[in-house]
Specification:
175 residues; alpha+beta; OB fold (Dihydrolipoamide Acetyltransferase, E2P); 2 domains; five-stranded antiparallel β-sheet; 4 helices; 5 strands; elongated
């Protein structure tokens, strides 16, 4: 029974730390979201794949010693460029080099909406049905949901500890 209590305690503390980290990152990312009016809609462009290249990405699938020994892994990116010649590019990760090459060989065109950020002289591409407003609203909703879930866990954790302390005091009074 004591071993089970210690496992529950450790798991609860680990989840509390995770909830605090998720809450912190959610607030950080919410503050970094640009307002919708800072994006300039450049319209929908047609992109075609032209090459597959290996890139190094952080190895998030490993843990412990395996992650320390192999901090990065090779992923394959399919690069697209717009067919109108305006210079916009977009990339998407492929599962394998072969799958990426199949996409390039098929040459299937993809439509993407280009939203530029004049202040940064940069741009992003989103699904053609999205607008700057829907894009920022989606980001905001994602981060607020994560923040609410993290906050709910912290509150439940604190409430559980209040109940435990109350029960111990009550038990002490009864004896």
């Amino acid at each position: 029974m004591a071993k089970l209590k210690s496992i529950v305690f450790v798991a609860g503390v680990m989840l509390l730390i995770l909830a605090a980290a998720v809450g912190y990152l959610s607030i950080k990312y919410l503050a970094a979201i640009l307002p919708a009016d800072s994006y300039e809609d450049k319209g929908v462009y047609t992109f075609s794949p032209y090459q597959v290249l290996p890139v190094q990405v952080q190895n998030t699938g490993a843990s412990g010693r395996d992650r320390r020994m192999n901090p990065t892994k090779t992923a394959y990116m399919v690069y697209y460029r717009d067919t109108s010649g305006s210079g916009y590019q977009w990339s998407q990760q492929a599962l394998t080099r072969e799958r990426g090459q199949e996409i390039v060989d098929a040459g299937a065109a993809v439509e993407r909406r280009v939203l530029s950020v004049p202040a940064d002289r940069s741009y992003i591409t989103v699904e053609p049905g999205q607008t700057a407003e829907s894009y920022t609203a989606g980001l905001r909703q994602k981060y607020i949901t994560a923040l609410v879930l993290a906050g709910a866990y912290v509150i439940l954790y604190a409430a559980a500890w209040c109940v435990v302390v109350w029960l111990k005091k009550r038990k002490g009074i009864m004896e």
